[in-house]
Design goal:
Length: 99
């Protein structure tokens, strides 16, 4: 079983995304996104490499939440840690955001 950690950038980005969802959509959609993230977190505890390596920056793996948000994470097999590094709206220029 892997431990989950959250980078401060990820935490700030997630907070901004949830605030934006509530303002532009609804609280219920924000709750749906949060629930989807929770499900991914639980899945990654057991299967940390289930999602593809991000071709542009191969230190990251990525998954998409609700067809709208891309989560980038790293896996440290030696320490058994999955670290959530970034979350961005999928329509953004992701390679430039990560550099």
């Amino acid at each position: 079983m892997y431990r989950i950690e959250f980078d401060p950038f990820y935490e700030l980005e997630l907070e901004q995304i949830l605030i934006s969802i509530i303002a532009e959509y609804s609280v219920s959609f924000a709750e749906k996104v949060a629930a989807s993230l929770d499900a991914v977190i639980e899945q990654l505890k057991e299967y940390p490499k289930i999602y593809a390596v991000y071709a542009d920056i191969p230190i990251y793996r990525k998954c998409v939440i609700e067809h709208k948000y891309t989560v980038f994470y790293t896996v440290d097999d030696d320490k058994k840690i999955v670290r959530f590094v970034h979350i961005f709206p999928s329509i953004r220029d992701l390679p430039n955001l990560l550099n």
